[in-house]
Design brief:
Largest sheet: 2 strands, antiparallel
Radius of gyration: 26 Å
Strand order of the largest sheet: 1-2
Length: 436
């Protein structure tokens, strides 16, 4: 029997799709439902980001495209979304031609394939919409949080009202002209047109917008003006986050304690777990406290995933076997996680996940490996069903393959790209602007 969900609204569907997107980490599925914890800390450290965001420029491109469409006489929401889709594809084609050596151009592979006429199911506007709202680039006067489709409906509704108002005024003016009360040259609708501009201004806080933004020299790199704006918006809305702190304190100079945070951002091999070697001490105490919880949980989750791979491989995966020996020899390192503090910090953690984590930690401490394996198998079956749970069909899968991910990244690798783009824009932004 096919399964699905009832689509009550576009906003709810978008929320579910975003949740599904965030279940993906390094192209591996979360086998044991641990990513509720990862996503909770990711929102604390790097708000507005997601695992499928590629480059910071899309925080500019999406509102630019929407602003362009607001100027057009589109009154049907479906036509509005279709035009936005076409405009985003045009951007991708322009970026592909102009930035062929750059990574992170959404749709690049699709356009380069023999099926170039096809386009993406998830558009840049879908991927970045939540972040645009988080950073206050998209906003409404009543502080609502509409989906992309709801935004299109609002724009088209207001356009219809404007058109009706303009047509009504036309009729009144024509009646007066025919009656000889006024001359034809007195017809002016500038106040109506000006109202249109004011009407749409409330949706977008994007002072960098220029009507000629989409041109043959469109670049995936931020201009200096764009970089400054995006940096300020993130700091304004999330100053106390890891993301906000990095943007506010990364510079060409040393940050503090002889640690150059900027060089860390530009180091490809530096990951989230590496902050524990010293850089985390430069952050405020509140971030250090959250980092400690997230760091310890990542170690703990890694231990669970090692055992999962023992199960999946029937103890034939030699890497997992050796790693489990390391876990047992350093058990305190992998079980020192304060689960109660994590549950208090994140709140709304599923009760069954809490129970699984508490029992797993205790079995690890007591070195009750068989009991630990059993609850891991039960956990996966409860989430995926026995037919889909790898741990229930270990004889059918490759015992040498690693399943379920390793250390948690908390979206740091994605956020690092955004920060890097902004820092490069601040330094080299003017050089990214070419004459039209």
């Amino acid at each position: 029997m096919p399964l699905g969900w009832i689509d009550f609204s576009k906003a709810e569907r978008d929320m579910i799709v975003n949740v599904l997107d965030n279940l993906t980490e390094d192209s591996t599925l979360d086998e044991l439902g641990l990513l509720q914890i990862r996503n909770g800390f990711a929102e604390i450290f790097f708000p507005g980001t997601s695992t499928i965001q590629k480059r910071a420029k899309y925080f500019m491109i999406v509102p630019y495209a929407c602003k362009d469409l607001e100027k057009q006489s589109i009154t049907n929401p479906k036509d509005f979304i279709k035009k936005l889709d076409e405009l985003e594809k045009e951007c991708a084609e322009q970026l592909k031609d102009n930035s062929s050596n750059e990574k992170g151009i959404i749709g690049n592979r699709t356009l380069q394939s023999k099926k170039g006429d096809l386009w993406l199911k998830r558009k840049p506007s879908d991927i970045y919409w939540s972040g645009l709202k988080s950073y206050g680039i998209f906003s409404t006067s009543n502080n609502e949080s509409p989906s992309k489709n709801e935004y299109a409906r609002s724009v088209c509704f207001m356009k219809k009202k404007l058109l009706e108002s303009k047509n009504s005024r036309n009729r009144k003016q024509l009646t007066k002209q025919n009656s000889g009360e006024i001359e034809a040259q007195e017809f002016e609708f500038d106040d109506i047109d000006a109202g249109s501009s004011n009407m749409f201004h409330k949706f977008w806080n994007i002072p960098t917008y220029k009507s000629e933004w989409l041109n043959k020299n469109l670049s995936i790199k931020l201009t200096k003006e764009e970089a400054e704006f995006l940096k300020n918006q993130i700091i304004k809305n999330y100053k106390d986050s890891m993301l906000g702190f990095l943007l506010e304190n990364c510079s060409l100079a040393f940050c503090s304690d002889n640690i150059d945070l900027r060089s860390i951002i530009f180091c490809d091999n530096f990951g989230f777990m590496d902050f524990s070697t010293g850089p985390i001490k430069t952050f405020p105490e509140s971030i250090q406290s959250d980092y400690k919880l997230a760091y310890d949980f990542s170690n703990f989750a890694y231990a669970i995933r090692i055992v999962y791979n023992l199960i999946a491989s029937r103890d034939q995966n030699q890497e997992a076997v050796e790693l489990f020996k390391v876990i047992n020899s350093e058990i305190d390192k992998y079980t020192c996680v304060d689960l109660d503090a994590i549950f208090r910090r994140l709140m709304n953690v599923h009760s069954k996940l809490k129970e699984f984590l508490i029992n797993s930690r205790q079995f690890l401490l007591d070195k009750k490996t068989e009991e630990l394996k059993k609850i891991i198998i039960d956990r996966e079956v409860s989430l995926k069903g026995k037919a889909r749970a790898k741990s229930s069909h270990s004889e059918e899968i490759d015992p040498l393959k690693w399943y379920g991910g390793r250390f948690l990244d908390y979206r740091y690798s994605n956020a690092k790209v955004i920060v890097k783009d902004i820092l490069e824009g601040l330094v080299n932004g003017d050089a990214n602007v070419k004459s039209i």
